[in-house]
């Protein structure tokens, strides 16, 4: 078998367009997912049982159901209801891009919330006692001490979540979006060359993963360097 480079070269603009779509989906999903995850993470460490259980129920349901099912429920399921189709939200909910971003953001918010909650629980008691000794209020303590410290410690786990979300964006091709995987499906449908089409898509994902890993390693050295063992 000979790898047909000519077909891939001809389809390169399609793959590059898919790359832009993938990066857009990833960036928007992570941004809005993190915005939702911050309050959810705080709710998960709340001593108020109602607040804590509400956040736990959300994260349990989202993490306990497949991403594909969530995407189908938002993109196909909501369109079943006439009230939704006649509402002011329909111009957005009828958009595949919006529905994909919404589904991905909801999904990553649940996982990220648990990462943040775990980092908050792992905060050394010394940091909390030092903040109290300085007379900080609870809000100021979270703002100045606990959240910045927890977010730094969460970087290694969050990097895994970002990489998983990169792979998850490939599901967007199922709802008609032409991302990297969608480009591969189009090439395969046109030329009947699945090996070339999907190997090329895999190379794109591998390159993106490599870049993300390097960026997070740099971030960890920058913000977690003080936790590294000291060299004598």
UniProtKB/TrEMBL annotation:
The chain crosses the membrane at residues 12-43, 55-76, 88-106, 162-185, 197-216. It is found in: Cell inner membrane; Cell membrane. One of its GO terms (cellular component) is ATP-binding cassette (ABC) transporter complex. Gene3D superfamilies: MetI-like. Residues 19-216 form the ABC transmembrane type-1 domain. The HisPMQJ complex is composed of two ATP-binding proteins (HisP), two transmembrane proteins (HisM and HisQ) and a solute-binding protein (HisJ). The HisPMQ-ArgT complex is composed of two ATP-binding proteins (HisP), two transmembrane proteins (HisM and HisQ) and a solute-binding protein (ArgT). This is Histidine/lysine/arginine/ornithine transport system permease protein HisM. It comes from Pseudomonas fluorescens. The lineage of its organism: Bacteria, Pseudomonadati, Pseudomonadota, Gammaproteobacteria, Pseudomonadales.
């Amino acid at each position: 078998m000979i790898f047909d480079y000519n077909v891939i070269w001809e389809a390169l603009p399609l793959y590059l367009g898919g790359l832009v779509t993938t990066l857009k989906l990833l960036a928007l999903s992570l941004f809005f997912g993190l915005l939702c995850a911050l309050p959810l993470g705080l709710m998960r460490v709340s001593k108020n049982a109602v607040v804590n259980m509400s956040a736990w129920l959300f994260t349990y349901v989202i993490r306990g159901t497949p991403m594909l099912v969530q995407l189908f429920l938002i993109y196909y399921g909501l369109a079943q209801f006439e009230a939704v189709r006649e509402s002011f939200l329909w111009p957005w909910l009828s958009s595949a891009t919006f529905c994909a971003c919404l589904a991905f953001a909801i999904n990553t918010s649940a996982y990220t919330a648990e990462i943040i909650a775990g980092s908050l629980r792992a905060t050394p008691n010394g940091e909390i006692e030092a903040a109290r000794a300085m007379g900080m209020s609870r809000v100021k303590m979270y703002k100045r001490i606990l959240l910045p410290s927890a977010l730094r410690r969460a970087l290694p786990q969050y990097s895994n979540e970002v990489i998983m979300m990169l792979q998850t964006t490939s599901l967007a091709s199922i709802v008609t979006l032409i991302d990297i995987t969608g480009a591969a499906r189009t090439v395969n449908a046109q030329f009947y060359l699945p090996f070339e089409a999907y190997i090329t898509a895999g190379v794109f994902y591998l390159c993106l993963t490599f870049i993300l890993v390097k960026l997070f390693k740099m971030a960890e050295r920058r913000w977690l360097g003080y936790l590294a063992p000291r060299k004598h």
